[in-house]
Design brief:
647 residues, alpha+beta, Aminopeptidase, 8-stranded mixed beta sheet, 7-stranded mixed beta sheet, 21 helices, globular
Length: 647
Amino acid sequence: MHIPFHPLTLQDKERVLRYTSGTHLQNCDLSFANLYGWQFLYQTEVAELDGFLLFRFRTQGHPAYLMPVGQGDIHCVMQALHEDACRQGHPFLMLGVSGPWLEAATRHEQIEYTLTANRDYADYIYLRQSLATLSGKNLQPKRNHVNKFRRLYPDYEYRSLTPDLVPACLRLSEEWSSTRTSPDIQRSVASERTMIGRVLANMDMLDITGGTLFVGGQLIAFTFGAPVNGDTFDVCVEKADTGYEGAYAAINNEFASRLPERFIYINREEDLGIEGLRKAKLSYHPHLLLEKFSVWSACTVSHHLGEQTTSCRESHLKWQTRALWQQCFDDSDDFLQLYFNKKYTPPINSFIEENGQVVSALQRLPYRMHWENTDIPVGYISGACTSPERRGRGLMRRLLSQAHRRMYADGQWFSLLIPADETLRQYYARSGYAAGKIPAYTPPAAPDMPLSYTVVRHREDGDCTLLKEWIEKCMPPRPCFIRQSDKDLDIVLDDLFLSGGVLIRATNAQGQTVGILLAVPENDEDIRILDIFAQPQTAVAQALCREAARALQRQGKIMRRETTVQVRVLQAEKALTHYAAEHPEETLTFRFKDEDIPENNGTYILANGQCLHTSDTTDDTLPLYAPQQLAFLLFGNRWPHLSLMLD
């Protein structure tokens, strides 16, 4: 069933109020002022269907719905919403579901739902009379705050918010935002500022009621909101200059005391999990904490996930992890489809959940690495990200520690990653990662060679089934590198072609493969080499690069950028035992401390090609190594060559 959604505009006000004003629903998300104010961010759409008002919006990269408002056959409407989500290739997700709607909306014979309470998004609902009078022992501290404000600023003046005061309110909002300097919250602060501007620019149309406080003729606080229904008023925004002691308590009290008596309740919205905000809202002793749930179902998209046996729980986590990735990284939908269908599996996903939402995640991709003349199991950290609103709380550090424990249990010797910039390199160093460089590479000048070329831009352009064999045959000397499996290389090619890149194979006069190059356009002029495998290296590499310039129609630079790689030791004893056998001349005794993997702790003695590990760490005369120092010992200047890692 098609649902005729259209973008929500001011012209939808009467349509929305017809459904919401006569209900007992107190959810702040249903305030038209909120719906319109945040429409720019959530791309909110609205539709009517079979007696219900429906809302669709986007959050963290995928579509979601608010609970339907109206009367009729709720199960038919829910089925229509499921089908709508399926047509967009996403799981069904409904947010802000509260009260009796929870059971009514989720009672369906054919659909399995996952329900999660979202404490961070619970609405604080107060009695208007309570906030207006601040009577009773529980609110004595609030009365004291307000009374102190009045003593400190006896000339203060309360004024109703009118259009002529909007410029002053916007200036105060700008000043308040400028004090929030943390990069992790600047985006949300900027979005709120935009919302305030949208609402105040249309305050008459939106039925906005607000108040302001002035001291000495200067605006120091403002607030505004709009009705949710006939008896509940929603306070959308409250801002104050904290240089004036008690300003927040005063604007709250003054505004509540002037609201019409028909409003029995005041909804002061959620605390978003912010500790200070939660404490402040609870200190006013809410009449009701309106719990809201997310309702999720993956049953309609199993075909899109490419999964046959994945549980509902695993699908839920997968889609939430994908949405978090999309929120944090600038990757295309095609790449996400490739990664989460072909690379991602539930067992390799490390994550942290809060209130049923994945807020931090990474994937531990398994590989084989050639190191010290043998192939060993390693893990590669991919997609490490934390929700912007949850950063600065140590979640990723905790997640990395958990991932290290899991990779150790899986028998992986080292954890590898490629940091995106210097700040992240320093961040991962605090979790034990040592850093090295894969140098930039620009092919030197060399004479032409009589070679033939096969240029592959798409799967159908050429046979790539022997790619692994070709690479191994043409591999230049590398002391440490990742061995890509056939499946890994298949995914690398998919990503290469999605990026508009080419695979070029060079053959000599005898038809033998002598070189492979993978390259993508860097910009309108330059070419970035992902990797180049050639024997003899100099002449064939130069010839392949000239062919790449022709194939990609670029006239600028052709190079492989310098890459920082980071390595953390996971299996200290195994790595040192193998290292000692490969370097029998090495004699070394040291203590080792690993906070994430205490099984590694102890004293290590390397001598005569052997390694002895004891748990004794009492000899303070011995040097004490941390994971970073041990990685430097084991790798020296022979850092892993990581070139085709979907980074």
